[in-house]
Design a protein that fits this description.
The complex is a heterodimer of chains A (115) and B (111). By secondary structure, chain A is mainly beta. Helix content of chain A is 0%, strand content 54%. Chain A has no helices and eleven strands. In chain A, strands 2, 4, 5, 6, 9, 10 and 11 form a seven-stranded mixed β-sheet that branches. The radius of gyration of chain A is 13 Å and the shape is globular. Chain A starts with a strand and ends with a strand. The termini of chain B are far apart. In chain B, 0% of the residues lie in helices and 47% in strands. Chain B has 111 residues and is mainly beta. In chain B, the strands form two sheets. In chain B, strands 1-9-8-3-4 form a five-stranded mixed β-sheet, with no helix packed on it. Chain B has a four-stranded antiparallel β-sheet with strand order 2-7-6-5, with no helix packed on it. Classes of the chains: A mainly beta (115), B mainly beta (111). Chains A and B meet through strand 4, strand 5, strand 9 and strand 10 of A and strand 3, strand 4 and strand 8 of B.
Chain lengths: 115, 111
């Protein structure tokens, strides 16, 4: 299957700082990127959907000013958690979907811990 | 909201076939059935997808009922590495459509 690389795989940051997570599609052009958040023992929750070159569409209850998503190219999307707080600690996962509608492929996830 | 219903957990002996059911009674004509799995602390892994015909690949087989209201994912010879949460998702072919995850089935393969 197609490969999506997510970086970093884990990060610890201080409360009040910002953290950027990168998601790259390595062998296909991801026209659409999805960002998810997963708390322990729970399923993946979709945060936002972004199409290359367009503003992201956020799910209800997700603060767009806190979770900044950039999808400037067909192979790169970034999620920036601004002014992180301990409650933002979670497992963040990106997913890319390309032309042809052949499902979506996921990065390995980033475990964010805010202390 | 998720459009599928799966049992919360299942057990399977190593070497035996694991049959994971999924109910998607409200599936639309243009929606495919996708299966993903998530091994602990990793991103979900694509397994297989299908529209109405049965499908098979190197990982699994997908059996979709004739009325398309349910399906079964079959892992023919389960191994300990197949222990994971398995998600059944319905999604239209359009690549901008969201993948909405339900609670999935936690498959435990035991020796």
């Amino acid at each position: 299957g197609a490969v999506v690389s997510q970086h970093p795989s884990w990060v610890i940051c201080k409360s009040g700082t910002s953290v950027k997570i990168e998601c790259r599609s390595l062998d296909f052009q991801a026209t659409t990127m999805f960002w998810y958040r997963q708390f322990p023992k729970q399923s993946l929750m979709l945060m936002a959907t972004s199409n290359e070159g367009s503003k992201a569409t956020y799910e209800q209850g997700v603060e767009k000013d806190k979770f900044l998503i950039n999808h400037a190219s067909l192979t790169l999307s970034t999620l920036t958690v601004t002014s992180a707080h301990p409650e933002d600690s979670s497992f963040y996962i990106c997913s890319g979907s390309g032309q042809g509608g052949f499902g979506a492929f996921f990065g390995q996830g980033t475990r964010l811990t805010v202390v | 909201d998720a459009k599928t219903t799966q049992p919360p957990s299942m057990d399977c002996a190593e070497g035996r076939a694991a049959n994971l059911p999924c109910n998607h009674s409200t599936i639309s004509g243009n929606e495919y059935v996708y299966w993903y799995r998530q091994i602990h602390s990793q991103g979900p892994q694509y397994i297989i997808h299908g529209l109405k015909n049965n499908e098979t690949n190197e990982m699994a087989s997908l059996i979709i009922t004739e009325d398309r209201k349910s399906s079964t994912l079959i892992l023919p010879h389960a191994t300990l590495r197949d222990t994971a949460v398995y998600y059944c998702i319905v999604r239209a072919i359009y690549n901008t459509d969201k993948l909405i995850f339900g609670t999935g089935t936690r498959l435990q393969v035991f020796p």
